[in-house]
Write a structure and sequence with these properties.
By secondary structure, the chain is α/β, with parallel strands linked by helices. Helix content is about 35%, strand content about 25%. The chain contains 4 helices and 5 strands; from the N terminus they run αβββαβαβα. It has a 5-stranded mixed β-sheet. Helix 3 links the parallel strand 4 and strand 5.
């Protein structure tokens, strides 16, 4: 996901492998009046699993931990290879404004990227 964000013009950075404080990567959009930072939490799941609320809670908890690195408006995203998210996770994400990207959305991003090259 960080590669796709970099291709879109973001300045991306990975967080430490251990002690990532709820974020696996940061993507900065420092241009114009649209300055913002995306905090990305990635979850690798079993093939038929759904990603649960814990992933959303982790990325929400990362905001204070990365406050000194956030440029502009923080935007939160959870990315997973899972087939989707649990209803509880979707509800929490909607309430908190967290963008969810599952396996199907990832494959569409890859397809669009390949089509544009």
């Amino acid at each position: 996901m960080l590669r796709q964000l970099a291709d879109a013009g973001y300045d991306t950075r990975r967080t430490p492998r251990t002690g990532d404080r709820g974020g696996d990567g940061l993507a900065f959009w420092p241009f114009d009046d649209e300055k913002h930072t995306i905090i990305v939490q990635c979850k690798h799941m079993q093939p038929d699993a759904k990603c649960g609320r814990a992933a959303i809670d982790e990325v929400l908890g990362s905001v204070p931990a990365y406050a000194d690195k956030i440029v502009g408006d923080p935007r939160l995203m959870v990315v997973t290879n899972a087939i989707g998210f649990t209803a509880d996770a979707e509800l929490r994400a909607r309430q908190a404004g967290v963008r969810l990207v599952d396996r199907h959305a990832l494959s569409r991003l890859r397809t669009r990227r390949a089509d544009s090259q």
